[in-house]
């Protein structure tokens, strides 16, 4: 079946958007002449690929929507429905698989709706779940099964592409911020101390101990992340008290954070969105995993990635809250530093 006007729904989060990039590339390869539109939350739009991969970007402003009263929410949905109907899509692909994306797929005006294998919150009643041979594999492979269903040829990792935005402007901006804080140029390690789930976070004391080991060896560290990570970044920088540590947590846009990672020599974090940008760029990295499963959502497609799994028996529980949380504590700074030093020495 050939399609001429396709809507791809994937609105959040950062990691999920990055996981969808190979699917978007495969979709374009399969339908080179189709018009492809991506529906996304505004704060993540900076990572939606430019043309020729994606032709148009539409926005659903969740932050604005959540602040509305009932009447304004209904009006907003009516406006969104009119906009989607005006586009006359002949295929809608719900790669979010949640109630919010199901509603938007339902009001799109298109009867031909599909999604990936894990359709939750009733979304499977709106869009047909496509379950391929990788339904138990990494999320990127689950997404790519939808592309395979549509006729895309993806036989090996060599066929998997991560179309990246142009970050030239952001690179210049973030380098200026680094120089303002004493950076003299040269290699630096990016550490992102935050995570969306509390249970995925590595303890601040562990980051402090690791940073002390890295800076003692003469290596520069840049702490990075969003505004929610700023307190952790400040604590790590203050407790280490090293001129080789630059704290940029909460001081960059998402695209500047991506540019910062693009320029780094090494990357370290727990399971968090920026990790997947580092993996897509094939940066040498160490990722710490406790409650989440690296085989489902870990770094994908790079031999430079090393996942350090918690030795806790309960690791992989997928709990966002835990009354006996110790899995991330069980990954020691010494364990991470040993991998870091081995990788650095091997590259050197």
Description:
It is a single chain. By secondary structure, this protein is an alpha/beta fold. It is 38% helix and 15% strand. It contains 12 helices and 12 strands. A 6-stranded parallel beta sheet has the order 3-2-1-4-5-6, sandwiched between helices. Strand 11 (285-289), helix 11 (294-297) and strand 12 form a beta-alpha-beta unit. Helix 1 (14-30) packs parallel to helix 5, helix 6 crosses helix 9 (254-262) and helix 7 (204-216) packs parallel to helix 12.
Keywords, please?
348 residues; single chain; alpha/beta; 6-stranded parallel beta sheet; 38% helix; globular
* Average pLDDT rating: 94
User: Looking across the biggest beta sheet, what order are the strands in?
Assistant: 3-2-1-4-5-6
Strand share of the residues?
5-15%
Bin the helical content: 25-40%
Number of strands: 12
| Number of H/I helices | 12
Order of helices and strands: EHEEHHEHEEHHEHEHEHEHEHEH
End-to-end separation in angstroms reads 51 Å
Structural class by SSE content: alpha/beta
What low-confidence regions span 5 or more consecutive residues with pLDDT below 50?
Answer: none
Anisotropy-based shape: globular
Computed over alpha carbons, the radius of gyration is 21 Å
Q: Could you give a short account of the major beta sheet?
A: 6 strands, parallel
């Amino acid at each position: 079946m050939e399609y001429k006007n396709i809507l791809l729904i994937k609105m959040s989060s950062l990691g999920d958007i990055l996981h969808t990039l190979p699917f978007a590339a495969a979709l374009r390869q399969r339908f080179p002449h189709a018009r492809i539109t991506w529906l996304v939350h505004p704060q993540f739009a900076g990572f939606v690929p430019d043309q020729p991969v994606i032709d148009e970007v539409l926005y659903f402003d969740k932050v604005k929507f959540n602040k509305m009263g009932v009447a304004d929410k209904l009006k907003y949905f009516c406006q969104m429905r009119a906009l989607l109907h005006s586009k006359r899509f002949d295929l809608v692909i719900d790669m979010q698989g949640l109630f919010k994306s199901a509603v938007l797929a339902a009001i799109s005006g298109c009867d031909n709706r599909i999604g990936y294998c894990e359709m939750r919150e009733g979304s499977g009643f709106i869009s047909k779940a496509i379950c391929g041979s990788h339904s138990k594999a990494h999320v990127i492979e689950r997404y790519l099964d939808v592309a395979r269903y549509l006729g895309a040829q993806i036989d090996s990792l060599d066929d998997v592409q991560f179309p990246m935005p142009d970050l030239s402007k952001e690179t210049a901006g973030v380098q200026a911020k680094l120089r303002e804080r004493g950076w003299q140029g040269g290699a630096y390690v990016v550490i992102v101390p935050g995570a969306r789930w509390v249970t995925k976070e590595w303890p601040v004391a562990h980051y402090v101990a690791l940073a002390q080991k890295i800076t003692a060896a003469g290596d520069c560290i840049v702490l990075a992340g969003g505004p929610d990570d700023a307190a952790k970044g400040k604590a790590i920088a203050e407790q280490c008290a090293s001129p080789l540590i630059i704290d940029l947590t909460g001081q960059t846009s998402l695209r500047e954070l991506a540019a910062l990672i693009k320029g780094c020599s090494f990357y370290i974090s727990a399971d968090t969105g920026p990790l997947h940008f580092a993996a897509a760029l094939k940066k040498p990295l160490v990722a710490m995993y406790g409650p989440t499963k690296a085989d489902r959502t870990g770094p994908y497609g790079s031999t430079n990635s090393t996942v350090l799994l918690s030795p806790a028996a309960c690791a992989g529980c997928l709990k966002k809250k835990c009354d006996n949380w110790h899995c991330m504590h069980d990954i020691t700074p010494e364990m991470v530093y040993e991998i870091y030093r081995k990788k650095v020495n091997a590259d050197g």
